[in-house]
Design a protein that fits this description.
mainly alpha, Heme Oxygenase, Chain A, 11 helices, globular, hydrolase, EC 3.5.99.2, Thiamine_Salvage_TenA
Length: about 220
């Protein structure tokens, strides 16, 4: 069953169409599910993803700046804390076991798909308001929640169990629900009803573009270093 991350996300997910399936059922994801993803591709992805998370932490920090309520500020500040103090630990631990230290991760050169995605999100927030930023951030947060939940139920191998458990776990699923609930409140406060509103199309375009950039990120992972 697909998890429930709120009605705004549900609308955007449906509105994204085919790219959402391409993202959540990408060959890279299926390789995590059945263990056939080559280790080198996984490590390459993790190194790029570490740098990705550095820039995503900056984008969530911009969310603090763009917040209009204490609830929004708490969610954004909490996400920055979770990212920089906890979530990146999975990357550091897995890479350390392969002989790659954190300084090397931090200094890794970004591939263009990685660069494009994080700067797109950052610019959505700089140019627009809190909702523009959230529409660009949502595919990443909820997409991994959905992928993790499905892979935990459908995995046929233990090879990438650590990765799957991180996103399938109750703690991360709760993050997705909290962000989804906040998002619904943020939309209600600024727009009222999203469907049929003047901002619906532009916000959907942000969400869909970020989803397509997630597909590009998996492509990059499969392609290797
Ligand atoms: C390419 C890429 N997309 C999404 C995520 C997942 N992710 C990014 S930030 C974050 C925490 C937000 O609460 C999560 C789960 C990732 N690691 N790499």
């Amino acid at each position: 069953m697909t998890p429930d991350y709120g009605k705004t996300f549900e609308l955007w997910r449906e509105g994204a169409g085919a790219p959402w399936g391409a993202y959540t059922h990408h060959a890279f994801v299926e390789g995590l599910r059945d263990g056939t993803l080559p280790r080198a591709a996984f490590l390459h992805y993790l190194i790029q993803d570490y740098v990705f998370l550095v820039h995503f932490s900056r984008a969530w920090s911009l969310g603090v700046v763009k917040s209009e309520t204490m609830d929004e500020m708490r969610v954004c500040a909490g996400t920055v804390d979770a990212l920089v103090n906890h979530e990146m630990a999975l990357h550091v631990k897995t890479c350390a076991a392969a002989g790659i230290d954190e300084a090397t991760l931090y200094a890794a050169s970004e591939q263009v798909e990685n660069l494009a995605y994080t700067r797109y999100v950052m610019d959505a927030g700089l140019q627009g308001d809190f909702l523009d930023l959230m529409a660009a951030l949502a595919p990443c947060v909820m997409g991994y929640g959905e992928i993790g939940a499905r892979l935990a139920a459908e995995r046929t191998s233990d090879t990438y169990r650590d990765w799957i458990d991180t996103y399938a776990g109750a703690e991360y699923q709760e993050v997705c629900e909290t962000v989804g609930t906040m998002l619904d409140a943020s939309v209600a406060r600024r727009i009222g009803t999203l469907q049929g509103s003047a901002r619906e199309a532009a916000l959907q375009a942000r969400f869909t573009k970020a989803t397509e950039l997630e597909v590009g990120f998996w492509d990059m992972g499969l392609r290797g270093a």
